[in-house]
């Protein structure tokens, strides 16, 4: 029986991915690293340190920095990102999301955020959505980033639910992989080929219809 929804944040509730990517590109250029076209897709949904490690591999600079220096670089990226999202408002909630959350509340579903972003609480406050969620996973409490299922298992546990009682929403392939590894029902938002592993898929958030999603969940 369905009892909860779990959401990624960036690219699902709001489009802050563009700000993350812009901040990473700025940092990469500062380090003398030119990111290839496929880097954006590879960076989507990754934890902050995992993203930095990927960028350094692109530039063959993995051995150039110690852990303290890497932490400093991720903090610099975060400062750039926070400056870019400072003006975000409820107008930046993606289409279809307000109605989906409203329907979930009407059906008394518990809801959680499973985002790799440590800025999730701040972003939810700016969007005016913080009160909608029963739990937010703290990425700093995790040992593994997506595609490891840890973050989705943690969200499920915070809601005090079982894997077969939740539906989780993602826009990145590594996020879908994490959901499936957690044994949960995965809703993918985006490209059909990249999100082929999802149990249910839509191209854009405005196609997220509560009744159709629940019907697919119940008929799996």
UniProtKB/TrEMBL annotation:
Pfam families given in the database record: Hydrolase
Which EC number applies? 5.4.2.6
| Bound cofactor: record note | Binds 2 magnesium ions per subunit.
Question: In its UniProt entry, what is this protein called?
Answer: Beta-phosphoglucomutase
- Write out the transmembrane intervals: none
Q: What GO terms in the biological process aspect are recorded for it?
A: carbohydrate metabolic process
The UniProt record gives the binding positions of substrate as 8-10, 24, 43-48, 51, 77, 115-119, 146
Give the annotated active site: 8, 10
Q: Which family does it belong to?
A: Belongs to the HAD-like hydrolase superfamily. CbbY/CbbZ/Gph/YieH family.
Q: Identify the keywords attached in UniProt to this record, alphabetized.
A: Isomerase, Magnesium, Metal-binding
Residues reported in the UniProt entry to bind Mg(2+): 8, 10, 170-171
Which InterPro entries has this protein been placed in?
B-phosphoglucomutase_hydrolase, Beta-PGM, HAD-like_sf, HAD-like_SPP, HAD-SF_hydro_IA, HAD_sf, PGP-like_dom2
Organism name: Lacticaseibacillus casei (Lactobacillus casei)
Report the domain of life of the source organism.
Answer: Bacteria
Q: Which GO terms describe its molecular function?
A: beta-phosphoglucomutase activity; magnesium ion binding; sugar-phosphatase activity
Instruction: List residue numbers at the site (Important for catalytic activity and assists the phosphoryl transfer reaction to Asp8 by balancing charge and orienting the reacting groups).
Output: 115, 146
Reported cofactor(s): Mg(2+)
């Amino acid at each position: 029986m369905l009892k909860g929804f779990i959401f990624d944040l960036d690219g699902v509730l709001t489009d802050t991915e563009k700000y993350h990517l812009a901040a990473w590109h700025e940092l990469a250029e500062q380090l003398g690293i030119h990111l290839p076209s496929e880097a954006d897709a590879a960076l989507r949904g990754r934890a902050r340190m995992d993203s930095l490690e990927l960028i350094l591999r692109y530039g063959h600079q993995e051995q150039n920095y110690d852990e303290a220096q890497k932490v400093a670089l991720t903090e610099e990226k975060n400062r750039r990102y926070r400056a870019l999202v400072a003006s975000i408002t409820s107008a930046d909630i993606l289409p279809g999301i307000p109605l989906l959350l409203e329907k979930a509340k009407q059906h008394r579903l518990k809801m959680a955020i499973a985002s790799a972003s440590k800025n999730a609480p701040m972003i939810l406050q700016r969007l005016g959505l913080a009160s909608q969620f029963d739990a937010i996973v703290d990425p700093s409490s995790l040992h593994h980033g997506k595609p490891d299922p840890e973050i989705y298992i943690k969200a499920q546990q915070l809601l005090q639910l079982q894997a077969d009682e939740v539906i989780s929403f993602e826009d990145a392939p590594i996020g879908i992989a994490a959901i499936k590894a957690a044994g949960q029902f995965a809703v993918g938002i985006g490209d059909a080929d990249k999100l082929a592993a999802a149990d249910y898929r839509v191209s854009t958030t405005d196609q997220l219809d509560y009744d159709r999603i629940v019907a697919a969940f119940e008929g799996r």
